[in-house]
Amino acid sequence: MRLAFFFVLGLAVLAVSVRADEKFPLLKAGNDTYTNATVTGVSATDIYFIYDQGMANAKLKDLDPALQKHFGYDPARAGAVEKKQSADQAQYHRQLLKQPAPEDMTRTANSSSASDAGKKIWAKSFLNQKFPGLAVEKWLTAAPDIRGKFVLIDFWATWCGPCRKAIPELNGFQKKFADKLVVIGLSDESEAAVRRMTDPKIEYTIAVDSNAVTKKTIGVTGIPHVMLMDPQGYVRWEGFPFLEGYELTEQVVAGIIARYSAK
Known about the structure:
Blueprint (H helix, E strand, L loop, with lengths): L4 H8 L10 E7 L2 E11 L3 E6 L2 E6 L5 H6 L4 H24 L39 E2 L10 E7 L4 H16 L4 E7 L3 H6 L8 E4 L4 H6 L6 E5 L5 E5 L10 H11 L3
Parallel strand pairs: 6-7, 7-8
Antiparallel strand pairs: 1-2, 2-3, 3-4, 5-8, 6-9, 9-10
């Protein structure tokens, strides 16, 4: 089964009722306030809009009761949709783990790292090799200064449940190792799609490559796919960050930084 199937499945739960161009000088959602918001769409769970600082979405359940009623918020329906989304994301995760990696993309006992023997990855392996290069169509945050830094690249998408699950952990890595590490999230979606996703909030560098140049070079067939390079550009960790027995944790990142930092 192609993993792209889950993109379609994820969208299928959105019964969008668009109130195009409806404007709000102030739009409050929970503790957040957006100015000059123009609604672009409404689903069973979310409202999508453009505002002074870009594109965003907010949960209908976080709006005041009058706006909830205005947008037809139905708690029971929203709960059912979110439950289905969670089930779809779990199915994606299970399917990814069941999907066989091509033979030449599977760790063997001859792996350059004994601890990686038998580890599957859904991409070509570049472990202990030079990273082939990063193609970016547009930086959605300031372009990072990677001189002398470790670089972690996360291939991800907004529709991917495990990708979204990884965001808080990646935020943590960036905060914990800020002086030594640059985390980059690279999506092959459109700029609008990436900017539209505001939950969970991304606190590291983001870029888009809609032609998937780097993704194709790496041969990524399952996401999230993470690659961690040392300051010399050699790949020191790669793979699916939630693979049982091979999880990418703060301790793993700290160990790699300690081992491959310049003496």
